[in-house]
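Q: Joint fold for the lines below.
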Amino acid sequence: MSQRARMVVFGAGVLGFAAVLVWGLGGLPDFGDFAGRYGQYLAQHSLPERHATSSIAVTTFDFRGADTLVEEFILFTAAVGVVALLRVERASEEVPAEPEARRRPTARSGALRSLITAVVAPTLVLGINIVLHGHLTPGGGFQGGVILMTALFLVYLGGSHLAIGRVSPMAAMEASEGVGAAGFALIGLAGLVIAGAYLENFLPFGGRNHLVSGGDIPLLNIAVGLEVMGALLIVVAEFLDQRLLMREGKL
Amino acid sequence: MTAVQIAALVAVALGGTAVVMAREPARQALVASVYGFALAILFLSFQAPDVALSQIVVGAVALPAMIVFALRKIIRREEVDRGEQ
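A: Joint structure:
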């Protein structure tokens, strides 16, 4: 196809796309004027029916729990895929980790190391707080799980490979990922056995606005938090060749 | 629309363009982190704190970190290929 013909095809495509886009945007409701009935239903029913104040958590972990189960397994599968690829590559090509001479603390400035050491514990507490209050306030297992991962990863940034191996051992992280993913699926199964449907909420709903409320939603949040933290730390550790270093007895 | 929402929309538009304009991958990862943060403020200003929180942890932290790790790995392999152990 000549340059000219290609431009004609491209131009026709762009004009057609722009026309349909403008037409579609013209038919949207006015700004801030959306009145979806599903949203109103959820906002009205989540608190009376589940006693949990975050209607988003009630929707994602209860009314639409199976959807979240699949989403959780997307991350699980992605982490397993990264681990498999990197380990196969390492076994066949033997690209060595950082040479001994160049391995040094990631943060060489004393002030930076002190600062990072100081924020590790608060970050950890923030992550736990967000996971545990997922059914009451914005946040939840996913967001809290990434924050927990950040807290442990700060140890690597502030120190060296040495400390991260001790703080988040590979085996524990793999267990955390597995227990989290399986925990979600098993809580769903418990709903099937006790309440009659998969992921049906089978625990007492508790008092409104209490830490223990919303039935099994807090448990599901904890499971997701463990899974997300474990999965991300495994991926990070694989990228940093932590396992290779450990096998050589250097950690 | 409030002033914060307009400012956030403009910041996201500029940020997205900046990510495309930054051609060097390592720098692009950092620009993407700033863009992710602008996106989080946009979500927050449109009253979606849950999505904003996810956006901060994923868009501003996890995604740029993964890009930087992948780049580090590629650079390390090129060093090995050139025979620098």
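Q: Anything notable?
A: Confidence is low (pLDDT under 50) at residues 243-251 of chain A. The first helix of chain A runs from residue 3 to 26.
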